[in-house]
Specification:
This protein is an all-alpha fold. The protein is built from twelve helices and no strands. It has one domain. α2 crosses α9 and α4 crosses α7.
Length: 314
């Protein structure tokens, strides 16, 4: 018997979504390595602003959808909020944190994004809170604290600050994923991302103005400019647009879960291109975070749903 067309279409769509999410994970993993190289020449705030500005120009001028209807006032306000969380805080905290800590530790801490996404979904009433989920959140949080605590015990202040900034970046990006999903499902993801980066470029200018004036532009080598161009094209434009498309076709929790691939890919790339040594505490913390988010991400049992709770509203 031939496979029904609807079943084949569903399988094709699922394969496309997972392929897209894998591509995003690879692009974001390359981002750690390429950005680390560029940050040897650029100030972190300068590099973050050039990355956002370059993406805003490309998305709004070269990839602009001229036939799209105007956005409502409410949509524009929401996009400003998304830009603040998903661009301004995300980019500045990530690149500043990456400049202070190692690439593989940053990649491990980024895996707290699913944890924060689930917590945000529970806080907004999109997910049910259960004992298992709280236990998973607690275990993953302990893993993140183990990384940060390891830096504190070693007495290395810069990596400690960098780790904390990466955690703030993860929280901001997770909230952005959760709250932006309805708009990504309703409007063109490419259009939303383009407006986000345009708004982000405006909001980041006061933050980056002084670092850019102090930047020694003549000392920036060609390879740093090439790294900037690669980061704009791949981990910024391509990754954000693909990620936004996946939010339109699957759950935010699945999008966040693919963050797990980043440490695996980044650890290998960091060892090859950056010569980073992996500390045992980082591996222990990675296991704790993965296990915690795995437990927290399990579907709530039937007894935890509204229909199965005695006296719950219809």
């Amino acid at each position: 018997m031939a496979e029904p067309h609807s079943a084949r279409s569903t399988q094709h769509s699922a394969l496309l979504v997972h392929s897209a999410l894998t591509s995003v994970a690879v692009l974001f993993s390359l981002n750690y390595i390429i950005s680390k190289i560029a940050l040897g020449a650029f100030n972190a705030f300068t590099f973050a602003y050039l990355r956002v500005l370059g993406a805003a120009i490309v998305l709004n001028l070269l990839l602009h959808d001229r036939n799209a209807p105007p956005l409502s006032r409410d949509d524009r306000r929401r996009i400003v909020l998304y830009a603040l969380l998903g661009v301004v805080v995300n980019q500045t905290m990530f690149l500043t944190g990456l400049s202070l800590t190692s690439a593989h530790v940053a990649a491990i801490l980024i895996t707290t994004i699913p944890l924060f996404a689930l917590a945000a979904a529970i806080g907004l009433g999109q997910e049910r809170a259960t004992v298992a989920r709280f236990g998973g959140i607690f275990l993953a949080a302990l893993g993140a604290l183990a990384v940060v605590g390891g830096e504190r015990i070693s007495g290395a202040m810069k990596p400690l600050i960098g780790d904390l900034l990466i955690v703030i970046n993860s929280l901001s990006y997770a909230i952005y994923l959760v709250i932006s999903k309805p708009m990504m499902s309703r409007l063109s993801p490419r259009r939303v991302i383009a407006r986000m980066f345009a708004a982000g470029a405006v909001m980041m200018l006061p933050i980056a103005a002084v670092p850019m004036m102090r930047q020694r532009w003549s000392a920036v080598p060609p390879r740093a400019w090439i790294a900037l161009a690669l980061v704009i094209a791949g981990p910024t434009i391509a990754a954000y647009v693909i990620n936004a498309w996946t939010l339109r076709h699957t759950d935010a929790s699945l999008v966040a879960t693919y963050t797990y691939l980043q440490p695996v890919i980044t650890v290998v790339l960091a060892a090859i291109f950056l010569g980073e040594q992996i500390r045992p505490i980082a591996l222990v913390a990675a296991v704790m975070i993965f296990a915690g988010v795995r437990i927290a991400g399990r579907p709530a049992p039937p007894a935890a749903t509204d229909e199965a709770v005695p006296g719950s509203p219809d």
